Each structure stands twice: as structure tokens, then as C-alpha cells.
């Protein structure tokens, strides 16, 4: 009797560990569901929108300008932020705010990206904390899931003029 109960218990624990490992790998390497909060990505992503973030792009260095990414916050490593990639390493980016009369530019250093929110007037981003190391990128948002009337791929940046090609 005790042997039977112990056998079932160990079998249950074994399955729990196996499926836990599979779930961990799926969320770490494939992707997951993310609830976004805050106004920094409006109008593209509203507060409380639910999106799907895929993680394969960061592992294969396939992040491109215009992608929206989930990143460990440079200011608070316990939280994640959602921003748009404006510049990759070596790109020239505008580092000033839209309201600044004189525009300043800089180059993104090797191994870093320049991130900005779509809501430039209400976003804490690379204009505040500088270029972000590529290693802090957790995933790339590719699909909006909720609300259902907005289901689908994300729209282009309303600040496309901030992408410099020279």
C-alpha cells in the first residue's frame, strides 16, 4: 500500500518537473502572452492591451528598426518595458525631444539599440537613459491579441520620421 502511494507520488512529481521544464523552455525561447501597461506606446498599444511576444528573434539577432520589443528596464531590472526600436548599433539617431528647437544626434554603440515609445511626449525611453544593451531584450511583439476588435499585426510607427537612414 505505502509502496503504491509512493510510486504514484513520485510519478506525479516526475511529470510535474517534466512539464514544468517544457513550459519554462516554451516561455523562455518561443514566446508568451504579455499585458502592456502605461501610455508610452499609444496609439499603437493602449494600456491593458494583451500582445504575443516571440523570443526567437532576440536569440538569432533578428531585431530590426521599427520592431516593438519587450526589454528589461535599464532603470529597474525587476520590471519590463515595451518600446519601439529606432536604431541599431552604428545607426545615427536623434537624441533630442520633439519639442527641442535644436536637434542633437548620436550614434548607437556596438551591442546596443535605441528605444523610444510611440507616444514621444509621455515616454521614458533611450532619450532619458541612453542606448540599451541588446542583451536586455526579452522578446519582439508581433501580434495584438486583446481587445478583439484590434486583433492582428501591429501597425507602423506614427513617428517614422525619427528613423534616420544616413
Automatic annotation (TrEMBL):
Places the protein is found: Mitochondrion inner membrane
Organism: Sclerurus mexicanus (tawny-throated leaftosser)
Family to which the UniProt record says this protein belongs: Belongs to the peptidase S26 family. IMP1 subfamily.
Segments forming domain Peptidase S26: 16-97, 103-146
Enzyme class: hydrolase
Designated name of the protein: Mitochondrial inner membrane protease subunit
One GO MF term attached to the UniProt entry: serine-type endopeptidase activity
Cross-referenced InterPro entries: LexA/Signal_pep-like_sf, Mito_IMP1_subunit, Pept_S26A_signal_pept_1, Peptidase_S26
Keywords: Hydrolase, Membrane, Mitochondrion, Mitochondrion inner membrane, Protease
Subunit structure as annotated in this protein's UniProt entry: Heterodimer of 2 subunits, IMMPL1 and IMMPL2.
NCBIfam families: sigpep_I_bact
EC number from the UniProt entry: 3.4.21.-
Cellular-component GO terms for this entry: mitochondrial inner membrane peptidase complex
One GO-annotated biological process of the protein: protein processing involved in protein targeting to mitochondrion
Catalytic residues in the record: 40, 83
Lineage top rank: taxon: Eukaryota
Gene name of this polypeptide: Immp1l
Amino acid at each position: 500500500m505505502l509502496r503504491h502511494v509512493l510510486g504514484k507520488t513520485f510519478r506525479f512529481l516526475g511529470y510535474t518537473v517534466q512539464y514544468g521544464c517544457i513550459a519554462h523552455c516554451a516561455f523562455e525561447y518561443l514566446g508568451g502572452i504579455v499585458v502592456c501597461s502605461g501610455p508610452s506606446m499609444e496609439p499603437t498599444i493602449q494600456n491593458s492591451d494583451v500582445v504575443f511576444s516571440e523570443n526567437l528573434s532576440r536569440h538569432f539577432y533578428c531585431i530590426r528598426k521599427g520592431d516593438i520589443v519587450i526589454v528589461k528596464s535599464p532603470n529597474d531590472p525587476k520590471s519590463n518595458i515595451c518600446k519601439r526600436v529606432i536604431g541599431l548599433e552604428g545607426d545615427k539617431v536623434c537624441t533630442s525631444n520633439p519639442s527641442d528647437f535644436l536637434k542633437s544626434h548620436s550614434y548607437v554603440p556596438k551591442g546596443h539599440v535605441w528605444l523610444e515609445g510611440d507616444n514621444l511626449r509621455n515616454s521614458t525611453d533611450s532619450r532619458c537613459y541612453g542606448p540599451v544593451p541588446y542583451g536586455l531584450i526579452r522578446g519582439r511583439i508581433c501580434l495584438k491579441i486583446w481587445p478583439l476588435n484590434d486583433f492582428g499585426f501591429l501597425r507602423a510607427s506614427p513617428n517614422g520620421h525619427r528613423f534616420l537612414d544616413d
